[in-house]
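Hi R.,

Here's the chain you asked about this morning:
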Amino acid sequence: IYWTLAIPASIAFLIQMVLAFMGGDSDDMPSSDAEIDADAGIGFQFFTLRNLIAFFTIMSWTGIACIDSGYSNGTTITVSVTAGLVMMSIMATLMYYMYKLRESGTLKLSNAVGKRGETYLRIPANKKGFGKIQLTIQGSVHEFNAISAETEEIPTGTIIQVIEVVEGNVMLVKPL
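And here is the predicted structure, written out as tokens:
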């Protein structure tokens, strides 16, 4: 029974590993866990196809090693199932922590408040018109419309600080 499980499970495990290293298990392609991944209700997924393949691979090879070492049937089953469950737990925990590393990629304008940037086009005084600023938010440079409550216009190339996000993506800024 263990040999019957070991061969197909090992082949499936190797295919999964090769696809993972080649990028075939990325978000752009259908995953072996696509149906389960679609359920966003739980972050920790224990019963996935990936985990079941890992369970059967480790369980079967551990069972073969136990039988080869002369353990009794009861001990062999207990040790092999325990090893499979430990492997499943390790895989599920690893996937959980890798999932937590994801970023949504959504730009949060509230992160601009307090940041320093540079005027790209002059900003008129007393909120009388728009200028443009360049600002680094969440690791990338963005260009925004900006207004100023200052009594003098802010010339191009001036270092500014964002005070607040006014409306949409318009920033209220002050020179530093």
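One quick note: Strands lie at 116-121, 131-137, 140-148, 159-165, 170-175.

Cheers,
M.
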